[in-house]
Amino acid sequence: MSTEGVLVASLFFDRQSPAIRARKNVRPILVNNHLEDRIILNVPKEKVELWWPNGYGEQKLYDLTVSFKSGPQASRKLIKIGFREIELVQDPVAADPDKGLSFYFKVNGVPIFAKGSNWIPSHVLPEHSANIERVHNLLSSAKQANFNMLRVWGGGLYESDMFYQLCDELGIMVWQDMMFACNMYPSESGFLNSVSTEIQQQVNRLQHHASIALWAGNNENEAALRENWYGTAHNFSLYKQDYIKLYVDTIKTAVKSADPTRPFLTSSPSNGLETEKEGYVSENPQSSLYGDVHYYNYMANGWSWLIYPKTRFASEYGIQSLPSLATLSQAAVPSDLVIGSKFLNHRQHLAGGYEIMTLLIYKNLPQFNSLETFIYFSQINQAMTVKTETETYRRERSKLYDTGEGLTMGALYWQLNDIWQAPSWSSIDYNGTWKMLHYYAKDFFAPIITSPVVTADSIFAVTIVSDLLINISSAQLVIKLYKYNSTDFAPVSDQQFNVTVSKSTEVMRTDLNELLQVCGSDHCFVITQLFSGDPATTEALAPDNFVFTTPLTSAQLPSPNVKIKRVDSRMDYEAVITLQTDRIALFVWLEADIPGIFSHNGFHMLEPKKQVVFTSYHPLNVQQFISHLKVTALKSTM
Ligand SMILES: *[C@@H]1O[C@H](CO)[C@@H](O)[C@H](O)[C@H]1NC(C)=O
Ligand SMILES: *[C@@H]1O[C@H](CO)[C@@H](O)[C@H](O)[C@H]1NC(C)=O
Ligand SMILES: *[C@@H]1O[C@H](CO)[C@@H](O)[C@H](O)[C@H]1NC(C)=O
Ligand SMILES: *[C@@H]1O[C@H](CO)[C@@H](O)[C@H](O)[C@H]1NC(C)=O
Ligand SMILES: *[C@@H]1O[C@H](CO)[C@@H](O)[C@H](O)[C@H]1NC(C)=O
Description:
By secondary structure, this protein is of the alpha+beta class.
């Protein structure tokens, strides 16, 4: 059989413009058991619109077909492509080379602060991982929470075509690990050949996706080797040789030959170019002066921003929480649903996981006894910790410290999703229910945020962080103080500041004790708001934010009575919930035992009434919805 034939490539535009075509008579050659040839399609720059990450513009995609005809035989393939440039910028941050290198993504010339989390397989059985409804709900939840990047973790799967197609459409950039994680791997030639084939196949399959920003060789194996996690120190040089054979000689070579256009990192975390310079296993792969870091701290109070590293890019960080009772119930009988049950212990895969969660909860929240309260508190604690940490990373984007640290340009928390009903670091549980963290992520990843903090020397400061490419002048920052235990809803102080919104800028700073004078002997917390002009008449530029100036453990916590006053259906999918409270209520948490999303959740109620909209994934039966709807708020004893 002759393989001589005609290769045609066509790029399609909207109806007005004719397609651009290229046509070539070819005689493809056999390479590694497949026929290979090349055709070049020249596309004038002005003919196409660019593809942008979520938050920066549209995700314009074009149909590209490639067909090959040889005698009576023909085959055709259609893919969707986008036009964009992605660079990973690693430039000296100062004249002194010891101050390290930057580490950030630039898309179409625009530096992008990467916001998002880590993706693990969406089901424990790989054959169920490409369920379109589940994957679509997860990825659109990511977009709704203002994500622009997901890291597909090296301990999981090369995901389905559908997954990357959705990322292309939603503007979610993908940091794609190769599937090597937390282990030392063999280096004999049979294994390396098989790896090489696998990498070429996967990169060939995926490289046309506009969303894929970067390839990385493995998850944490550089750190594991350097820090002797698996007892390799007795012959470091042997394991290092093996490491280089696999990730550099085999994987990097295979990636670069299949896709020379994208940046490649040997490991995550790594020091990027500095790791290469140091021979691929750097002295400290977690250096805050280079590359990315994975940061976990299960001892310190996560609600304090002072504990977090001043890194270039945080590609993993987080703590555990429990999924909702409804989600746990799907895999349990009622007798399993108590603290300490065999069922719950079996599903905890972090050694000492519940003890860690409990100790961290007690740093800020009251004692608890029931599983319901444990779930609620674990989700408050996780939301507050990841909020505090992420805002810290976003504040550091414009800050270069004398040490060379700072200029953080990425915050990907661990982890988006779950493979089963269990305690984990996820922000969305196995059933697709948003944990409190995911509602918080929507706010802390908003394009513009106000971020109030109290410093170690009792200064109260507010930073405004903006991803916008323009500055906004004459914006109005509102700072309100509330007493925790006030019985009316009036703030004890309400101040307004005229500020400019630009990248990350500290816009006000004052002595904390002075600020709190109006509170007398009562304890207060602070709410910050941002408006484009007069707060009474203009739109909010940022979600409302808050900071507890007194740890909750020493505050006079209110015991509010929060009630669901009424529920009205709106269109087929929505329910409008009216809540009522007799005093200020913290961490007001709504649960509905059906799949869907609340417009707000985990919020503080500072008014006697508030409306929240529930949007169901399926047409809503309001009576059924009401019978499952539940509201909880923080009380000093629960
Ligand atoms: C390390 O392994 C290599 C290869 O097996 C061997 O030649 C060398 O002696 C080993 N070094 C040590 C210190 O055990
Ligand atoms: C925004 O303001 C900063 C600080 O004043 C300034 O350096 C920058 O050039 C401004 N950017 C734009 C786009 O106007
Ligand atoms: C805010 O400050 C800017 C610049 O200092 C000034 O031009 C503007 O009039 C002020 N706006 C208000 C509402 O005070
Ligand atoms: C709030 O708590 C403080 C300190 O415990 C107490 O003095 C005050 O009376 C309380 N106020 C109200 C309205 O309960
Ligand atoms: C969980 O998933 C099941 C099956 O898809 C569904 O019937 C149930 O309503 C879901 N529950 C919640 C709370 O989303």
